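Notes continue from the previous slide.

Worked example: a multi-chain complex. Inputs as given:
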Amino acid sequence: MPLFLYIDRPTALHRLNPTVKVLGMLCFFVAAFVTQAPVAALPVAALVSVLITMARAWPNVRRLRFLFLMVFVMTFVIWTLFFRGGEPVLVCGPVRISAAGLRFALGMAIKLDTLLGVGIVFLSTTKIEEFAYALTRVGMPYKLGFTMTLAFRLVPVFLDAGATVVQAQRCRGFNFDEGNLLQRMRRYVPVIVPVFMGALRRADGMAMALEARGFQAHMQRSAFEHFPFRRSDAAALLAAVAVAALYVTLAYFGYTSVPR
Amino acid sequence: MAAPDRAEAIRLDHLSFAYADQDDLALRDIVLTVALGEMVTVMGATGAGKTTLAKCLNRTVPAFQPGRLTGSIRILGQPLQAQGVADMAGIVGLVSQDFEAQLFATNVVQEVVFGMEQLGVPPDEMRRRAPRALAAVGLQGFEQRDPSTLSGGEKQRLAIAATLALQPRILVFDEPTTDLDPLGKLEIFAVLAAMRREGYTLVVIEHEIAAAEQADRLIIMSKGRIVCDDTPATVLARADFLLQHGVRPPDRSRVAQAFGLQGATSLDETEAALRARWNPAQQANAAVISANPTNTPATNDLSSTPLVEAQSLAFHYESGAAALTDVSLRIAARDFIALIGQNGSGKTTLAKHLNGLLHPQSGRVQLFGRDLRDLPMNTVAADVGYVFQNPDHQIFAATVLDEVAFGPHNFALGRAEAAERVHSALEAVGLLGLEAADPFLLGKGERQRLAVASLLAMRPRLLILDEPTTGLDYDEQRRMMDLLARLHSQGMAILIITHSPWVVAEYAERGVLMSAGRVLFDGPLRDLFAEDALLARAHFHAPEITRLGRRFGFTPLSVEEFANAIGDKQHA
């Protein structure tokens, strides 16, 4: 199983300065976040689709298609049912569906999938080391940035350990599918405890190994990879900021929202 | 002893240490000097203090793991006092057994430069050092690989390269090969030999004799003390002494002891010394052994219904790599099978098919003639027990008793029946009296036996164990294997996955050798150990005593067998 979403490809997005990637991601998050109506959300979604194509990250979208689908459907259904206001087009007992509600729900669903897409563009084009570098460049202390990225790296490791523990307990007659929800939660104890204890042990071992490798030495760190700030980085950053600024302005004047 | 003209790399003066939460001393009055460029191997049982000694050399003890330290440590003439562990990184490199916990980066180059970045090495210098470090461990061409995709041996070599890049004069290895397969071990020993030629000062803690043979000095530790410090040839010849301190001696030393041979420090010398005393006319006796093997598979009777039968299994993982290709295996009720082969050869994948954890993409597995696909996991688990390699993947309960009772509980057995099963399982593994103990506080060997007990409580007909002796010291390995032998004699079928030649030879009856997802050999062990070409192909080798016997034209499986074959005639 490949551990990360990162895909090593020689694209212009991969070559961007890591700091620009982080800031660019934030810009697109903002742009997607301030939209409400589908008409406003769609252009951002289209733009992100172009970015995914540029990053050649569609394989990752395919890998996570279930997540995209779930987020879309769940968001749409929930917001359709809970939206208050607008002229109802269908009333059935407590269920009340309005045209505005449908539009709002569709906009929300597009928005959340767009946010996911932005995340995928970032993770597909950014190595963990670059991520750590960018975090320190935007002011985060190195230790904190490194710890965060290490946590990222360990997620698949623990998922893997979890799968092994489930197998080991099934060999002892452990059955997952019995009982109601509460009983099932309690039944997960034989899985959670070994994974958790393993995580603690591993953290201990890693901490020792990190120090043995000079982590926390009383010296000025150096960096192997230097990421220059090129003209293309400036252009990309400018474009991303422009998109965010445009959307914030539109949102400020109410052009992106669904009228009630 | 250090030659007077050589500078001191390490000097320990009456060093004693106790961990903060423990009363007992982990190290007792250690006096030790290692000269620059010397290679010293340290052996001893679990709890002898080897790892603590290693950690003292880079300040992990007591800076990271605190405790009471008395006496003094000097590294390259400088006393260790207030330094942090990280400050030692460019002076003493420590490589530990757990290679997974030593890798942090997303590609091989990043891993190698990680430490250099911490120590502020300039980028140009990193670019010079990284290729050298990778070349030293034979990982050129791996630069852009994701470390998680490397084999165990490659991961450990990468951890060594990352340490070498910091250019420490002294390197300390804490059981670097324990979790590796035979080929991985050979890779590490080759790296050690190269480093020794390069003039590094090496302290190597190992269970493998091969590491001891390469060294200038061999130290035996026991209960926190150094009990022996001499040339490897001298120490390895003291078979009884080694056994007494929980170290498995080389087979040739026990042969030399049995026959009173002097100065036979290699297999060749042992053979020559024996030939000088042994009349070739007596070879007839050796033939008797081969004709009447003491451990022949109990059943080769194809007419009886096998316990578990796998027929032409094919399986490949999602990544597309074939894990099993046309694999068939019949397991009879009284079998004791050793499943051997390189890591990645398909052993564990096959074993997981035998109890339905995995289902084949083609072919089928039957339990007493019923297809495993048609049986719920619970039904299979009652008959086929599977002990995972790492007991910590299953231990979760607050007490030993609860841990063992988990299986019977899942089968909804009556209270009396469950209690009786738990009791007899604990009795079988020698953990009676520890019912109320916290499993997480037990030693590795005890946890491994607890894992076995928790499956025994389900009274399986077949017990599968994945590397049951890995990470245990010699006495614990013996205990584990004697336990399995006892269960087998009581009628249980046993299948072990293992890399340990002597464990295979002394305990199993039938050998199944796998390579690249196929079964290369399936038959009596003695026949397997006569297949030199096949074994070489799978990077497995017979135990030393078997190889010695084959030079005399027979295939003994233990020192006792060898001694009997030759000794009987001598006295006749």
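Summary box: Chain A has a mean pLDDT of 89. The first helix of chain A runs from residue 12 to 15.
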